[in-house]
Amino acid sequence: YGVDCDPNAACVDTPEGFQCVCQPGFADVSSSVSKMPGRKCVEVVNECTTGKADCSCNADCFDRDEGYECKCRPGFVDASPDTAKYPGRVCNRPKSPEHYGQTSRQ
Questions:
Q1: Domain boundaries, position 78
Q2: Is residue 71 domain-resident?
Q3: What is the C-alpha to C-alpha distance for residues 46 and 39, in angstroms, rounded to an integer?
Q4: What are the residues whose beta carbons fall under 8 Å from the beta carbon of 39, sequence distance 6 or more?
Q5: Strands (DSSP E) found in the chain
């Protein structure tokens, strides 16, 4: 019938026609969830708890429908190679003022 539901979605008859509904254990990440749900369903995997996330040990991991996000904890600076796409992979403590060319007096 030309139904374009994701393979991990069920096609449900409605009075208006049909609706695609992602199966349990899958999240709906379709481009237009409100108008055309169930077109793209991804398995719900919490990378933060399964050890699949590559966040710094000084970062917090946040599970998202599609993947995860890392964010450096307060008191740490994000020194990741690509902070726009992959933040929180390298989180360092900022250097103390003596490392800015100042000398400490004793």
A1: 47-92
A2: yes
A3: 21
A4: 4, 5, 6, 9, 20, 30, 31, 32
A5: 9-14, 17-22, 26-28, 41-43, 59-64, 67-72, 77-78, 91-92
Beta strand 26-28 pairing with 41-43: antiparallel
8 Å CB contact between 2 and 18:
no
For residues 29 and 66, state if they share a domain.
no
Question: Which two tokens mark 72?
Answer: 């450096």
Chain segment 51-100, per-residue pLDDT in tens: 999 999 999 999 987 789 999 999 999 999 999 999 999 999 988 654 44
Are 39 and 52 within one domain? no
- Residue pair 23/37 in contact by the 8 Å Cβ criterion: no
The pair of structure tokens assigned to 103 is 């000398």
